Amino acid sequence: MKIDRHGQAKILTAEEIQLLFNEGATLNPPRDRALFAVMLYTACRVNEAVTLRIRDVYDRKGSVRPVVLFRKGNTKGKLATRTIPVLEDLRKHLTDYHPPSWGNYLFPGRHGKGHLTSDAASWILREACKRVDIEGVSTHSFRRTALTQLSNAGIPLRVIQEISGHRTLDELYKYLEVRPEQVRGAISALSMLSPVSSAEPTEPAPDYTVKSAFTDVSNTSEP
């Protein structure tokens, strides 16, 4: 867990996500929810989110596009442009948000200059976390939460890598959290290896007593 900006960002639970979106995002609710949703539902980095342009998300009619476009120049390492399908949850928040029409960026900076900075986005999230009393969260929490959820859902790592934009699988592994209960569940699967007892059930010993066919079963005698 991240404390005083040290350590790994916390993986968010469904309840914490609910709190952040419903009760934490109060500075500028539509913008803040759209910002959180972009980072959560595309698993992008904070810098990739704040540098999105309006036309990377909306078409000329103002409708949300079917995919979000992350330009190569704004990705870490500038490796490649990637597109992420828009989940219905994300579409809802983007539809409710109306970025200023006079700007180019989805999340404009102060006084409409440039785009919101990564530091400003981090501050917005920290303020939201204070309101709902959640510790250990950073903007990276949305990315880690999304990628871990995909992994837990059984999505192949190569597909997750395509979504995350990581150069190698080794880099991706660092984002994925393994919970204690998952380890316990994995170990319990080894119970199938327990040997079955090979002892045969004991049968009653055969009776080898020879009985005479001439035995007088009435056990009587003449006087």
Can you walk through the features of this model?
By secondary structure, the protein is mainly alpha-helical. 40% of the residues lie in helices and 4% in strands. It is built from nine helices and two strands; from the N terminus they run αααββαααααα. It has helices spanning 14-24, 29-42, 46-50, 88-96, 118-132, 139-152, 157-164, 169-173, 180-188, and strands at residues 67-70, 82-85. The chain has a two-stranded antiparallel sheet with strand order 1-2. α1 (14-24) packs across α5 and α2 runs antiparallel to α4. Mean pLDDT is 83; it is low at 2-6 and 208-223.
List the helices and strands and how they pair.
Layout: H1 14-24, H2 29-42, H3 46-50, E1 67-70, E2 82-85, H4 88-96, H5 118-132, H6 139-152, H7 157-164, H8 169-173, H9 180-188
Antiparallel strand pairs: 1-2
Helix pairs in contact: 1-5, 2-4, 2-6
Which descriptors would you attach to this protein?
223 residues; mainly alpha; two-stranded antiparallel ribbon; 40% helix
